[in-house]
Amino acid sequence: MIQQNNKSKMLGVVTLYNPKQEEAIANIKKYLYNLDALIIWDNSPLEKHLKASILNNLSEAKDRVVWKGDGKNHCIAPAINYALNYAITNHYDLVLIMDEDSSWIDFRAYRKDVEELFISKGIAVFTPYVEGCDIFPITNDYQKKKLFINSGTIIPSALLSHIGSIDEDAFPLDALDHDIALSVTALGVPIVCLTKHKMIHSIGQPQRLGIFHLFTPNYNRFRTYNITRSHTICYRKHKPLFDKELKKYYFYEILFLKFVRIILAEPDKYGRMKSFIKGLYDGIRYKIIKNEQETFHCNSSSHLQWGRTSQRTD
Fold first, then answer.
1. Nearest residue to 245 via CA among 178, 188, 200, 183
2. How far, in Å, CA of 159 to CA of 125, rounded?
3. Helix axis angle, 269-285 to 221-237, nearest 10°
């Protein structure tokens, strides 16, 4: 049933790439009825015929879907940039970013609380507690975060507009969420986790490999290159914001552990090590252009105690 009487206009954007159709449709239905519009950005081949299949299963809500897809995989950054321009042109207040395999427990309640905070307290970035990713102890209903994953995050369109378009060459897929989060932090805008609202999401499918049975996401050459390159660019771009914890994440988990996993556990060692080194080299050499921006006026952190800063999202 279509929900009405919302206090703001919210646009959603979800990316698809060869999804399990039944799972993707079920996940979309859990939030589509509580959005004013949803952009479905399909990176799948056209011969999959996802558009007809998925829209036919969305019944009366399909009228609020904007479908984009040309049969090529453009990753995630172009989808968010398109959503940003669509939100500004059509006067949406908030933008929800979703992945195809994320499942909500109660999106309607999450949206309601986000709207009330947005209207009464001002600009902030809002996230749910993401089961499968968040590992910090919950101490109160609102906890500040340093980073977030794309899926489940709600960002005011005015804030996205101020940050500007995502660099699609630097962050086509990986480290995209971290780049946005650190850009937000640089403006003094809080990232707030509404801990009583849960969303289920898993990053990759870690498995034990090699003679030492190490856990590894087992990413192929392409992902190994892009993860290393994009995170290196993100570190260089936002280096002043990297505290001890974030430096540990980059140098230990992104670089050191990946190196160890390739050597001790993963297959295709030569190809992946070559991709890892090339990603690091290209990330170091990437030319970063920082836009000079006026201060973003945000009053939310000045009169609302969001609680202590939680640990990062993995």
1. 178
2. 9
3. 20
pLDDT tens, residue by residue, 234-273 = 999 999 999 999 999 999 999 999 999 999 999 999 999 9
CA angle in degrees (0–180, nearest 5) for 229-295-118: 90
- How many residues would you count in the chain? 314
User: Of the candidates 197, 58, 174, which has an alpha carbon nearest to the alpha carbon of residue 117?
Assistant: 197
Secondary structure of residue 12 in the 3-state scheme: strand
Distances (CA, A) of 293 to 11, 13, 38: 25, 26, 30
Cβ burial of 39 (10 Å; 0-12, 13-18, 19+) is: buried
Q: Domain 10-203, CATH 3.50.30.20 — does that match?
A: no
The sign of the torsion formed by the CA atoms of 246, 306, 153, 295 equals negative
Q: What's the pLDDT at 208?
A: 78
DSSP state for residue 309 in the 8-state scheme: B
Contact (CB, 8 A) for 143 and 310: yes
The CATH 3.90.550.60 portion of the chain extends over 10-203
pLDDT tens per residue, range 50-85: 999 999 999 888 899 999 999 999 999 999 999 999
Tokens 């709207």 locate to 115
